[in-house]
């Protein structure tokens, strides 16, 4: 492959494409902007988004730079099973959101963030812990999308990587800044249509231009035995299993997903997430096959960077016109998630930081709240651009953030169902899990001698318990507590023979699993000693809209909750809020 930009798209062509794409999205954002801006609509579009926009937004947001680039990287690394592990498990995690989402919406229909509900459930420390994790995760997610944009622009044109990052960052910021989540969700629909063009038109062109299917016969010698094996244990342990753990954490802890959960009309949650499951799986597995094709062709990633596989395949096999369309599709895909990250970050700062921790009760100024949200977007974009300059591996960043959020999954889910979970149990469980996760994930533990062997056994045992937690939570979401407990036990028993003694060798997977297990053990043990029985019906009264009914614009409905947020520390403490039995707390999700 020649120098980037030497034979593909001219600078003028790229600038015209980017100006047209971001100009169209900016036009849409300006069309939906209201004269009297509304803070609640800026964050969740009035909790009343319809099925079509909601499903498109959910699908488009979940398909981000990692979905496009890392799926291909997985196919290039692990063979044909790589995209299956990436796309299938990611799709199923969307499906697993909806039963928990219905429970969350039922007890807090007017919420803006998960952290906001945690304050009403536990107190400010749990809220800030969850909000902080989301800030870190969303900035990393934002960075990966900027990295993807910079990489593809630098490959297709004379522009440098840094210039490409600036183009994408500026384009996303300029249209999202005006209308927040409303702009993000409506432009997602346009971006999803572009992504369908990628799967239905561009990928088949690349395959046939690369002499498919004969290339899969002549290039078989480029594959190792593990890459040729569809049921490769290496692919599952190194890619599939860590991704299952990571995306479950994303589903529960990611504010971009939660924001869409709070925005969609409550009776449309199931339809929205089932549709997004199918759309995500089809598109991500399809794009991942480009990595498999690159593996059969014996392609060497440009500059040794696996993030270049997708644009490199397009550059080498597409005519100029199709290459321009491909650039639009990729930019649209990464922009749809980048604008979601900006909206998520602004909501956290607006609702969790300013609305409930800076402003005093009854003194929240919606106009000032909007200013906080917009300033947050500018600062987050700047941070993302600076971090993107390090050009970190997208897949590694994805799995790291997912594992980091794994420490939050059980404490968050149990807080919506189990009245005995306390603020102290929540915070201690998360911090303990992080304290164990970091040394395991970054291999800070000794591996030699008796101490190393003992620690290896401990990691294996905790990892096996983590497997049980993940399987148990999945089963609990759809079938209730009893089935969840049985599934967890069976998973532990089934995994023990092969996992004990070897699991610690897979640091990415074991790090994620110990985060799940430690947070669960600590949370359960501390909660069982608690005499608290939280009344979940009080959350509805504590989590409401920030704007009054008179200021709600056409983009959202009037407030269904209190005009003032529940930002009183006393009101947020379950010990002070009341100790009557939780009449509305079922033992498992209900259909």
From TrEMBL:
**Name of the protein:** Sodium:solute symporter family protein
Q: Which family does it belong to?
A: Belongs to the sodium:solute symporter (SSF) (TC 2.A.21) family.
KW Ion transport (keyword) present: yes
Q: Fetch the Gene3D superfamilies from UniProt.
A: Sodium/glucose cotransporter (1.20.1730.10)
Question: What membrane topology is given?
Answer: Multi-pass membrane protein
Q: Name one Pfam family in it.
A: SSF
What UniProt keywords apply to this chain's record, in alphabetical order?
A: Cell membrane, Ion transport, Membrane, Sodium, Sodium transport, Symport, Transmembrane, Transmembrane helix, Transport
Q: Where is this region: Disordered?
A: 550-591
Reactions accelerated catalytically: L-proline(in) + Na(+)(in) = L-proline(out) + Na(+)(out)
Residues folding into a coiled coil are none
Compartment(s) of residence:
Cell membrane
Does this entry carry the keyword Ion transport?
Answer: yes
Transmembrane stretches in the record are 6-30, 42-64, 84-101, 128-153, 159-178, 190-210, 230-252, 273-297, 317-338, 370-392, 398-418, 425-444, 450-476, 483-500, 506-526
């Amino acid at each position: 492959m020649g120098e980037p930009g030497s034979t593909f798209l001219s600078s003028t062509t790229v600038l015209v494409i980017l100006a047209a794409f971001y100009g169209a999205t900016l036009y849409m954002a300006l069309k939906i902007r209201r004269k009297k801006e509304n803070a609640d609509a800026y964050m969740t579009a009035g909790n009343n988004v319809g099925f079509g926009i909601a499903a498109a937004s959910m699908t488009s947001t979940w398909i981000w730079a990692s979905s496009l680039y890392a799926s291909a990287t997985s196919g290039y690394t692990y063979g044909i099973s790589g995209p299956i592990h990436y796309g299938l498990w990611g799709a199923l995690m969307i499906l697993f959101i909806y039963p928990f989402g219905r429970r969350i919406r039922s007890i807090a229909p007017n919420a803006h963030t998960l952290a906001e509900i945690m304050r009403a459930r536990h107190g400010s420390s749990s809220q800030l812990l969850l909000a902080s994790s989301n800030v870190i995760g969303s900035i990393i997610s934002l960075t990966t999308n900027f990295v993807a944009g910079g990489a593809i622009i630098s490959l297709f044109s004379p522009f440098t990587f840094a210039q490409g990052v600036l183009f994408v960052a500026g384009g996303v910021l300029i249209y999202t800044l005006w209308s927040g989540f409303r702009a993000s969700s409506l432009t997602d629909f346009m971006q999803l249509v572009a992504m369908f063009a990628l799967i239905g038109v561009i990928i088949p062109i690349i395959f046939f231009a690369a002499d498919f299917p004969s290339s899969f016969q002549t290039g078989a010698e480029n594959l190792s035995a593990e890459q040729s094996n569809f049921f490769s244990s290496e692919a599952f342990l190194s890619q599939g299993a860590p991704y299952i753990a990571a995306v479950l954490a994303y589903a529960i802890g990611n504010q971009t997903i939660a924001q869409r959960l709070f925005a969609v009309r409550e009776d449309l949650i199931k339809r929205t997430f089932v549709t997004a499951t199918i759309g995500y799986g089809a598109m991500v597995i399809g794009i991942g096959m480009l990595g498999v094709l690159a593996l059969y062709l014996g392609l060497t990633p440009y500059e040794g960077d696996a993030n270049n596989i997708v644009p490199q395949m397009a550059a080498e096999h597409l005519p100029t016109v199709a290459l321009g369309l491909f650039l639009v599709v990729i930019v649209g895909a990464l922009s749809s998630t980048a604008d979601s990250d900006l909206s998520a970050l602004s909501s956290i700062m607006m609702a969790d930081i300013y609305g409930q921790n800076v402003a005093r009760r009854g003194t929240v100024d919606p106009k000032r709240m909007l200013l906080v949200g917009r300033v947050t977007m500018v600062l987050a974009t700047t941070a993302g651009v600076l971090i993107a300059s390090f050009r970190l591996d997208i897949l590694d960043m994805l799995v790291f953030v997912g594992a980091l959020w794994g420490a939050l999954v059980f404490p968050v889910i149990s807080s919506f169902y189990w009245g005995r979970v306390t603020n102290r149990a929540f915070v201690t469980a998360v911090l303990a899990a992080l304290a164990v996760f970091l040394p395991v994930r970054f291999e800070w533990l000794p591996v030699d001698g008796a101490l190393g062997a003992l620690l290896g056994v401990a990691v294996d045992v905790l990892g096996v318990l983590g497997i049980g937690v993940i399987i148990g939570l999945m089963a609990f979401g759809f079938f209730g507590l009893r089935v969840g407990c049985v599934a967890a036990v069976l998973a532990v028993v089934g995994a023990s023979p092969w996992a004990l003694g070897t699991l610690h060798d897979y640091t990415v997977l074991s790090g994620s699993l110990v985060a799940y297990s430690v947070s669960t053990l600590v949370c359960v043990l501390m909660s069982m000693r608690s005499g608290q029985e939280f009344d979940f019906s009080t959350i509805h009264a504590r989590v409401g809209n920030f704007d009054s009914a008179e200021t709600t614009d056409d983009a959202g409905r009037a407030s269904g909750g209190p005009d003032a947020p529940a930002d009183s520390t006393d009101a947020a403490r379950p010990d002070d809020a009341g100790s009557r039995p939780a009449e509305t707390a079922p033992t498992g999700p209900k259909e």
